[in-house]
């Protein structure tokens, strides 16, 4: 998209006086209001300054129409009627300004009121030269003598060049001068650098000191657009300089006519997001302040450490100097004036203070630089004292302990108490001043490594192996943290750090209050959480049965819900409809346009047009009549496997999302637990795919959630830094999934040959470089490939309750990348997946943007009849759809996988169907929705689910309730300073089939041993562990084993403790009635009283009065 940029200014009187009779606004206020409304109406962004002396503007619009209309209307506005305003236009491919600002100031171009506008009104301004006239004048003075035989210079030019010496003044600041200036190609002639940082310094620090030397010379001056030359030329003429001329239209007009072929060399510094206006073929004339290499690199962080003015610094020096730069004026303070003191020792800080004192002594008395140095000396001294206080806190704590011991030996209890109290009080006061920040090493959120390197060096941390430091390629660090974390570190070490953070939070909340005076909640704020708590009481669930599958479903009644979203940085200056069209894909553009027109989508609580320009801090509200797809029903009571003061372990059903996201809010796991079990404010420590069932760890407080998350992130990588303050008992988490896959999964080395041959081409193309191999090794991963181990290294979680004794493990290491963000589809990154495999660069990019990932699998059982395998699966990294993709890569897709299974990708199936968006657009065109003040009625009328049906409102993948044959089965957690926690769910249905087959085989073996009576039939009940484990335990039981026997007329129930848990078995007559019902009742009792309230320990007799009473009642009822 091309933006048109407008630059203009005009010195003209604008009245500030208000009408005393009717109290109407002044002319200045009216102009300000007109500018704001015109900008909103025409879609303009930028900066406009108005004052009693005139107007100065820099605006932009999408395309030329907006600024062209603005120019016409401005010339019709009082007091600009009849004025000759030079409107300068330019273009840019990116958004020039983030928003629109109109300010009233004392001057439209600040001189510190050193040059009054009256000088311009009195005709003191210099002569305006067109770009051609300015060029010819420079040519007459600066051009080399022409060769013999060529036409001689004009008589007028020769005469002019001999009469007066030429002085070319740059009225801009030092940085603007260095990026580009008027000069000859060889540098023999060039404009004078004022060496100022602001225009307000031009008169007192430069012009006033040199004006006498310019009185008998010809003076040419220039600036960016001409506004600064207006007052500057008037000042010189008022001081006695008679021959003063200025470039009309400034550098901007000159480049329009001559480009890089004229006398202006380099780039023109501009005041929008471009920063520099570069004519085609321009040369670089700027130089790095440090290494003097040619550069014109400028950015917001390249500023002087003392005065914060912009400087030129090349990228190499930027990386090397770690954010510490100096302008020419303050370069003498280098190695003395240091903004980041945390990296210096106390001795080095003392040396800095000595150097600062020397610089202070050498500086002029009563100068600004002396004041800056004095502040830095005070700041350095305060920092040193604060650090000494902090480091002494540990010694104070030791002294406090020693004092307590000494006090115990005191002659009297009163004396001991007094001494101990005094020492403790002193320690508390010292401790209050201690600010320990970054005691632990910062870690990458993606790979778990520490880093980045420059941040660790800045913090003074030592590390022995650079390979163990994140290189930033995995995007685990946010860009602002990775690029420039040093100011944040300095801020964190301020004495009033905590109060500053609180005040910033309060200011942010005040700034984001809506313009109509209402205090709307921030997303994630305390008030928003309170409103969410209130929403729990409004939730209405229904239990339904799917007529086709017979599954019990949870249905949530439709409800009204209003989204609150604050404008993001990339949205600023864009139209409201454009943001919804490009950022949100839930509905077609026609839907969002109609929602805006009906007032369902508002900005700051007000109804706006679809073309409304968004500004910083705007709040977007979107009221919807919300439907949610049904999910599998399971009562919250039955989901909870274990609960304590810190954790809730939940057995999540398939089709239920862990937390509100996308199409699911009230039908999410956190909502269901909050509504049915009053477990509010739970923090999920991790997530499962919606169609994956199994164990989810919920934390009851943020501290526990942070520990679990940290343990998950660190489970592969060691701690390479020797940090004495770090906790030595690092956390660790092991997790295991059960998966049913197609085909017979390999269980030996020979079986893997076919897989490796299939992947050989991609493996060769993805052969990593040496540094990448070291990096993968550092995070505990292997290069891409398939690996076999006859026996795993002991890191796989031991499962005692599933069939099979296979110990061999197959590891798959393969990078993954997002293939379709809209559909949530990922893929195994392979060069062959690139759109243009003939282009090696494109093929390499298909791998470079992927994230390393690794999984480990173990074959548990194989069913020949269904040709499926039961696997233990463990993801070593936490990528999206990782297990599903790695198994699909091997050709053993997870059964019932709609995205990566053998039945094909549902997104492709949906693409072949009629486009649901087309139906929505067609319905909107046919409907005649009238505007109404009742927003809820309008939301219901626009609701796609209400008008078109659930099939149109949601994708097939969103309404699917059939589960994948993938189940999070077991977790083992070891956290610092906590006892280990192990939790396992009951076996999923797809795994019970494998267990039943194994049990039947063992059953026949036990029968042949004649362990049971002649006509008795062995019947097994489901237990917490598995049927397989029960069957294996059938044997004569000694009397001391703690068996409890409950006997009915036709059967006998035995329950006993084993090394793997509580076991049941029943002996019964072949014709026993209601035996299945009895066994189901036993299992329900067991699940209710044993799983949720563990009452047994190994080698102890089962004892739980409540369980025994209910079990006894069940036996009597069956009799």
Automatic annotation (TrEMBL):
Residue span of region Disordered: 502-526
Record keywords: Endoplasmic reticulum, ER-Golgi transport, Golgi apparatus, RNA-binding, Transport
Source organism, top-level taxon: Eukaryota
Protein's cellular compartments: Endoplasmic reticulum; Golgi apparatus
InterPro entries documented for this protein: Longin-like_dom_sf, PsdUridine_synth_cat_dom_sf, PsdUridine_synth_RluA-like_CS, PsdUridine_synth_RsuA/RluA, Rhodanese-like_dom, Rhodanese-like_dom_sf, Rhodanese_C, TRAPPC
Organism phylogeny: Eukaryota, Sar, Stramenopiles, Bigyra, Labyrinthulomycetes
Any single GO BP term: vesicle-mediated transport
Signal peptide limits: none
GO CC terms: endoplasmic reticulum; Golgi apparatus; TRAPP complex
Pfam family, one: Sybindin
Keyword hit for Transport: yes
GO molecular function, one term: pseudouridine synthase activity
The name this protein goes by in its record: Pseudouridine synthase
Limits of the Rhodanese domain: 162-263
């Amino acid at each position: 998209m091309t933006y048109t940029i407008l630059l203009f200014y005009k010195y003209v009187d604008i009245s500030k006086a208000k009408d005393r009779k009717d109290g109407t606004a002044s002319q200045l206020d009216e102009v300000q209001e007109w500018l704001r409304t015109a900008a909103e109406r025409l879609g303009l962004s930028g900066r406009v300054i108005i004052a009693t002396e005139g107007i100065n503007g820099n605006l932009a619009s999408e395309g030329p129409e907006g600024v062209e209309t603005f120019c016409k209307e401005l010339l019709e506005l009082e007091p600009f009627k009849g004025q000759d305003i030079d409107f300068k236009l330019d273009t840019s491919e990116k958004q020039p300004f983030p928003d629109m600002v109109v300010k009233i100031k004392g001057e439209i171009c600040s001189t510190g009121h050193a040059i009054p506008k009256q000088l311009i009104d009195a005709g003191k301004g210099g002569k305006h030269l067109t770009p051609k006239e300015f060029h010819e004048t420079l040519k007459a003075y600066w051009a080399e003598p022409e060769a013999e035989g060529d036409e001689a210079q004009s008589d007028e030019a020769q005469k002019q060049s001999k009469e007066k010496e030429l002085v070319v003044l740059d009225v801009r600041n030092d940085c603007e001068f260095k990026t580009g200036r008027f000069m000859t190609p060889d540098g023999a002639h060039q404009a004078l650098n004022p060496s100022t940082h602001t225009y307000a310094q031009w008169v007192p620090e430069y012009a006033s000191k040199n004006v006498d030397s310019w009185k008998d010379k010809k003076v040419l001056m220039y600036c960016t657009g001409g506004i600064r030359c207006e007052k500057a030329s008037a000042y010189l003429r008022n001081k006695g300089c008679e021959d003063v001329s200025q470039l009309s239209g400034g550098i901007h007009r000159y480049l329009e006519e001559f480009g890089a072929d004229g006398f202006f060399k380099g780039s023109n510094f501009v005041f929008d997001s471009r920063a520099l206006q570069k004519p085609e073929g321009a040369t670089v004339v700027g130089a790095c302040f440090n290494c003097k290499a040619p550069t014109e690199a400028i950015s917001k962080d390249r500023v002087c450490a003392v005065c914060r003015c912009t400087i030129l610094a090349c990228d190499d020096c930027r990386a090397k100097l770690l954010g510490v730069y100096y302008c020419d004026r303050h370069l003498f303070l280098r190695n003395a004036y240091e903004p980041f003191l945390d990296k210096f020792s106390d001795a080095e800080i003392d040396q800095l203070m000595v150097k600062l004192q020397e610089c202070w002594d050498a500086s002029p008395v009563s100068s600004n630089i002396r004041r800056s140095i004095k502040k830095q000396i005070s700041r350095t001294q305060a920092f040193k004292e604060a650090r000494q206080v902090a480091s002494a806190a540990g010694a104070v704590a030791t002294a406090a302990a020693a004092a307590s011991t000494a006090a115990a030996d005191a002659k009297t209890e009163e004396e001991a108490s007094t001494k101990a109290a005094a020492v403790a009080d002193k320690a508390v006061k010292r401790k209050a001043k201690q600010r320990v920040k970054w005691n632990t090493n910062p870690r990458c959120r993606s790979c778990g490594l520490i880093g980045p390197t420059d941040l660790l060096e800045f913090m003074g941390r030592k590390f022995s192996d650079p390979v163990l430091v994140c290189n930033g390629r995995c995007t685990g660090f946010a860009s602002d943290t990775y690029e420039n974390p040093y100011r944040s570190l300095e801020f964190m070490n301020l004495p009033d750090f905590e109060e500053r953070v609180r005040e910033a939070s309060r200011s942010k909340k005040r700034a984001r209050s809506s313009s109509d005076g209402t205090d709307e909640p921030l997303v994630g704020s305390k008030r928003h959480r309170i409103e969410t708590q209130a929403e729990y009481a409004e939730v209405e669930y229904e239990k339904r049965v799917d007529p086709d599958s017979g599954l019990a479903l949870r249905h949530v009644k439709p409800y009204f819900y209003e989204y609150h979203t604050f404008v993001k940085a990339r949205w600023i200056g864009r139209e409201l409809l454009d943001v919804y069209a490009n950022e949100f894909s839930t509905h077609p553009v026609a839907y969002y346009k109609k929602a805006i027109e009906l007032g369902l989508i508002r900005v700051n609580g007000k109804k706006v047009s679809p073309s409304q320009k968004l500004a910083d801090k705007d709040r977007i509200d979107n009221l919807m009549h919300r439907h949610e797809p049904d999910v599998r029903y399971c009562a919250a009571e039955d989901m909870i496997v274990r609960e304590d003061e810190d954790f809730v372990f939940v057995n999540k059903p398939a089709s239920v999302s862990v937390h509100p996201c996308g199409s699911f809010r009230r039908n999410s796991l956190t909502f269901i637990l909050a509504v049915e079990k009053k477990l509010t404010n739970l923090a999920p420590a991790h997530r499962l795919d919606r169609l994956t069932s199994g164990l989810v760890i919920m934390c009851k407080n943020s501290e526990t959630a942070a520990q679990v998350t940290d343990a998950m992130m660190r489970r592969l990588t060691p701690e390479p830094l020797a940090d004495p303050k770090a906790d030595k008992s690092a956390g660790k988490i092991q997790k295991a999934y059960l998966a049913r896959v197609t085909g017979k999964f390999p269980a030996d080395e020979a079986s893997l040959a076919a897989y490796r041959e299939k992947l050989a081409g991609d493996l060769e193309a993805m052969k990593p470089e040496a540094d990448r191999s070291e990096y993968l090794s550092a995070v505990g991963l292997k290069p891409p490939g398939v690996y076999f181990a006859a026996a795993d290294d002991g890191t796989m979680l031991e499962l005692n309750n599933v069939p099979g004794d296979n110990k061999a493990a197959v590891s798959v290491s393969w990078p993954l990348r997002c293939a379709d963000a809209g559909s949530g589809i990922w893929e195994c990154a392979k060069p062959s997946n690139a759109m243009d495999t003939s282009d090696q660069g494109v093929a390499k990019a298909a791998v470079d943007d992927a994230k390393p990932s690794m999984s480990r699998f173990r074959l548990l059982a194989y069913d020949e009849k269904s040709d499926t395998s039961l696997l233990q699966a463990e993801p070593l990294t936490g990528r999206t759809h990782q297990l599903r993709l790695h198994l699909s890569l091997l050709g053993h897709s997870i059964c019932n996988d709609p995205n990566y299974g053998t039945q094909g990708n549902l997104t492709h199936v949906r693409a072949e169907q009629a486009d649901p968006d087309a139906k929505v657009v067609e319905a909107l065109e046919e409907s005649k929705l009238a505007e109404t003040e009742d927003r809820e009625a309008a939301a219901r009328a626009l609701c796609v689910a209400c008008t078109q049906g659930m099939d149109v409102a949601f994708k097939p993948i969103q309404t699917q309730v059939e589960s994948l044959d993938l189940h999070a089965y077991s977790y083992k957690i070891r956290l610092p300073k906590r006892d280990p926690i192990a939790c396992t769910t009951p076996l999923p249905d797809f795994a019970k089939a494998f267990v039943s087959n194994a049990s039947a085989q063992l059953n026949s073996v036990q029968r042949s041993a004649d362990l049971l009576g002649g006509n008795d039939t062995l019947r097994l009940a489901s237990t917490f562990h598995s049927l397989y484990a029960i069957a294996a335990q059938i044997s004569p039981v000694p009397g001391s084993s703690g068996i409890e026997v409950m006997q009915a007329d036709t059967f006998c129930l035995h329950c006993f403790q084993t090394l793997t848990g509580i076991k049941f078995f029943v002996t019964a007559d072949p014709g026993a009635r209601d035996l299945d019902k009895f066994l189901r009742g036993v299992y329900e009792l067991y699940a209710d009283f044993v799983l949720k309230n563990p009452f047994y320990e190994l080698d102890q007799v089962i004892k739980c009065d409540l369980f025994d009473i209910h079990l006894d009642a069940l036996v009597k009822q069956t009799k």
